[in-house]
Amino acid sequence: MSTALAAAPRMAPASLAQLQECVLAASRLLPVGGGTKPALSTPPQGVATLALGALSGIQEYDPGEYTITTLAGTPVAEVAAALAAHGQYLPFDPPLARAGATLGGTVAAGLSGSGRYRYGGLRDFLIGVQIVDGQGRLVRGGGKVVKNAAGFDLPKLMIGSLGRLAVLGELTFKVFPAPPAYATLTANYPTLAAAAEAMATLRLGAFDLLALDLIPAAPGHAGAALQLRIGGPGTVLPERVEGLRHRLGGGTMLDPDADTSIWQQAAEFSWVPAGMALVKTPLTPHHLIPLDQRLAAAGAHRRYIAGANLAWIAWPGALDDLSGLLASAGLSGLVLRGATAHLLIGARQDTLFRSRITAALDPRQRFLPYE
Asked: What is the rounded distance in angstroms from the CA atom of residue 7 to the CA atom of residue 77?
């Protein structure tokens, strides 16, 4: 198998043992999941594609223990359906499920959705991994039970690793009971500043919000909207919505179909205009207004999620321009879609620690550089 794979531009292992063979057979490779984030999954010329779609399936699932273990190529949608059958879910709200995103790709890209607001993001739910490093070794980190806390936290290291440190083979997550019902309130404001002020009051309140997103108007238009989601028994949601409406001084409660639709659109990035790049940017609320003014002036579309602790930026021009804009604000970005020589843009990242990890996991540099 190894001889045939050495000349193959595309490899598709169906087991962890085959994954080890593939890594050893390639001089340079890029792991690819569902291909939903093309900037991360398009290999440069001469680099082998390590397609993980066949490395798929739920390995262990014990609803009573609230944990699930899957192979890395397992589609997010498949896992969500299995959990839903037992009234459970992944609260970090992995995006692009309908587009075919895999759990391995989600972890490698470090992506969480709008639902991360209450319970935390991906790093709060990944508790165990098996990886194949650049030397073909199968390495386990973490465990398959929530109580496990021994050893080096390899799972956290793999979050956002972009397939540049090792190949994810198996993943274990803790899961939560899903809310029996949801309700969404939308509120419109004449300015971004007014919406940001209202958002700040909600962050300080005890409203148990599942999601809190701020959406500025399209470039060239004024105003902004807040979208708030809560969950729980259907009988108490209207009263909770009224409490939110009172705090905000107004707002509209969506019907159940609209509630589902609006968050699916957020998760699938259907608000991003065709042809625009898509960039993920961590930030804090105090960056919000000055950053948004510059993004709006450049014609970017924006969505601020998790109480404005993360921005999704749809960028219409050259990504070098956005990189300079972010760097001047002390912010960094990860390119998910768009033509770019560097996946990481904006303020420079600390590379010393990562270079030491790379030297330990991939001394022959089979994986692409983290840049």
From this structure: 33
- Tell how far CA 162 is from the center of its chain: 12
Orientation of helix 288-297 relative to helix 192-204, angle to 10°: 150
By the 10 Å C-beta count (0-12 exposed, 13-18 middle, 19+ buried), 3 is classed as: exposed
Distance, in Å, from the CA atom of 197 to the CA atom of 242, rounded to the nearest integer, reads 19
Greatest CA separation for the chain: 68
Q: Which residues pair with 252 in a beta bridge?
A: 186
Q: Which residues face 62 on adjacent strands? A: 67
In angstroms, the CA 318 to CA 351 distance is 25
Dihedral of the alpha carbons of 183, 211, 113, 320, in degrees to the nearest 10: 130
Helix, strand, coil abundance in the chain, percent, nearest 5 = 30, 25, 40
Tokens of 324: 């300079």
- 278 pairs with which residues across the strands? 314, 337
Beta-carbon count within 10 A of 188 CB: 15
Residues in the chain: 371
Convert the pLDDT of each residue in 355-367 to its tens digit: 888 888 999 999 9
Which amino acid belongs to residue 76? Answer: V
Give the CATH number for residue 72. Answer: 3.30.465.10
pLDDT digits (tens, 9 = 90+) for 272-296: 999 999 999 999 999 999 999 999 9
Token couple for 141: 């980190």
Q: What is the CATH number of the domain that holds 249?
A: 3.40.462.40
Which amino acid makes up residue 167? V
Choose among 74, 96, 35: nearest CA to 267.
Answer: 96
Nearest to 130 by CA among 172, 101, 96: 172
3-state secondary structure string across 11-63: ECCCCHHHHHHHHHHCCCEEEECCCCCHHHHCCCCCCEEEECCCCCCEEEEEC
Domain span including residue 49: 1-178+350-371
Structure tokens at 271: 């608000």
Report how far residue 89's alpha carbon sits from residue 101's, in angstroms, rounded to the nearest whole number.
Answer: 16
Question: Is-above-0.85 flag for pTM?
Answer: yes
CA 254 to CA 23: how far, in whole Å?
49
Local structure of 213: helix, strand or coil: strand
Identify whether residues 113 and 216 lie together within a single domain.
Answer: no
Q: Is 306 helix (H, G, I), strand (E, B) or coil?
A: coil
